[in-house]
Amino acid sequence: xxxxxxxxxxxxxxxxxxxxxxxxxxxxxxxxxxxxxxxxxxxxxxxxxxxxxxxxxxxxxxxxxxxxxxxxxxxxxxxxxxxxxxxxxxxxxxxxxxxxxxxxxxxxxxxxxxxxxxxxxxxxxxxxxxxxxxxxxxxxxxxxxxxxxxxxxxxxxxxxxxxxxxxxxxxxxxxxxxxxxxxxxxxxxxxxxxxxxxxxxxxxxxxxxxxxxxxxxxxxxxxxxxxxxxxxxxxxxxxxxxxxxxxxxxxxxxxxxxxx
Length: 260
Ligand SMILES: Cc1cc2nc3c(=O)[nH]c(=O)nc-3n(C[C@H](O)[C@H](O)[C@H](O)COP(=O)(O)OP(=O)(O)OC[C@H]3O[C@@H](n4cnc5c(N)ncnc54)[C@H](O)[C@@H]3O)c2cc1C
Description:
Layout: E1 2-6, E2 9-11, E3 32-34, H1 36-52, E4 55-61, H2 67-76, E5 80-84, H3 94-106, E6 112-116, H4 127-135, E7 139-149, E8 152-158, E9 163-169, E10 172-176, H5 188-196, E11 200-203, H6 205-208, H7 243-256
Parallel strand pairs: 1-4, 1-6, 4-5, 5-11, 6-10, 7-10
Antiparallel strand pairs: 2-3, 7-8, 8-9
Helix pairs in contact: 2-5, 3-4
Bound molecules: flavin-adenine dinucleotide.
């Protein structure tokens, strides 16, 4: 099975801080990690390779420092790592990101593409399904369990209130939940090999033959008008009452605020 896992380097926090003046993300002093859903997806890819054979390629679009995360993926057991990097990709929104990743994937052989369900910084959950759309292949999101079958996989999708079992044939894309597979630890030997034996392939826009109009800021239709931290609400007041008394309290509160 030929598997491509898209991995994104993200700040190691779900509490993204914004610069109050210009509204941009404050990344200084925040360590970066592999996006948790992507790490679960990578672990699943490695398990599939172990059970049915094949190879696992990790692909990331990002600045040169994303190399560290790709080395981690190699140390976990990935066979090949590709970093898509360069000025042409700067300022990409989700559409431009997925266009670039899909163009890179077109240059590779694959049966299965795995992305995370969502990245903990951007949080849109759009990139995986968009890649599938660009490549015109089926997408199964919210994967919590994957079982290989001849020529495809069976995916257990998890929703808030139910599961759905889907059979999907290759080539296809799934988006992984963090629960899909608990990531393995890297061994010291594998970490050495990730730096000494493996290389990270650096690809630029010229390597992926993408339409330049679909990349970077110019290829991004999203415009962020304003970003600001959520205002904190004061602590609420809990009043315990029942029946008529509860109704009277609610009506009094609503009148107090001129809502009725
Ligand atoms: C107008 C605009 C401008 C932006 N400019 C920049 C910028 O200059 N620099 C910048 O860093 N960000 C920028 N961003 C943010 C960037 O577009 C998003 O981080 C990116 O598109 C991914 O979206 P997301 O984080 O919501 O990912 P999601 O859709 O939540 O991610 C789902 C999955 O897709 C895969 N994935 C997502 N992104 C990547 C990636 N880069 N490489 C590999 N796999 C990936 C992962 O498997 C991930 O789990 C910009 C966003 C907007 C709207």
